[in-house]
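Schema walk-through. Below, the input block comes first and the output block second. Nothing else is stored per chain. Lengths vary across the set, and this one has 212 residues.
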Amino acid sequence: MTEVIAGVEIPQTAAAVEATRAIRGRTSPLIFHHSRRVFLFGAIDAQTRGLEPDPELLYLAALYHDTGLATPYSDEEQRFEIDGADHARKFLLDQGFPARSVDTVWTAIALHTTPEIPGRLGPEIAATARGVLTDAVGLGLDGLDPAQVDEVLAAHPRGDFKNEFLHAFLDGLGYRPDTTYGTVNADVLEHFVPDFRRASMVERVKSSPWPT
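--- output ---
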């Protein structure tokens, strides 16, 4: 059955349906609704920019992009973005996707918190990052059609998103603080964890074993 939200058709391939079932069941409503909004806002932005991402790959990247914050996806001592990317890779390989498609989704998820670079890469990667920025920090929100925004939020409400989203990051990163080095994720721990001390690149260079 076709599902259209704000003019964007939700992919209904076998892989998309299975991913929807899996992510809805294994993550919180907060993450599930956020991930679907990321797809919708990313797709809307792509339309306005003349980009043509593969809808299925964009959808899978959006669904998996924050799964590294949640059990059972956060069982490795690595950046949460890589957690999500690795699990998406396994899912796509199990579904029989070609290597190029798998690499596209992996990269879109792994780089979704990295400033500037995703926009210079393929349309699925760029649209994933843009959808994340729109939903998380409101980038480009003032340029969106208010009727489309209302339709997205009617289907996937935000609730107390700002507070709940930051605490989801805290829960997903607090037990592995070293993985936040060099990323925006350290901002969350610096704000919420009193004894957290951000390691700097300057300190790492100066404390290296090299004599000069």
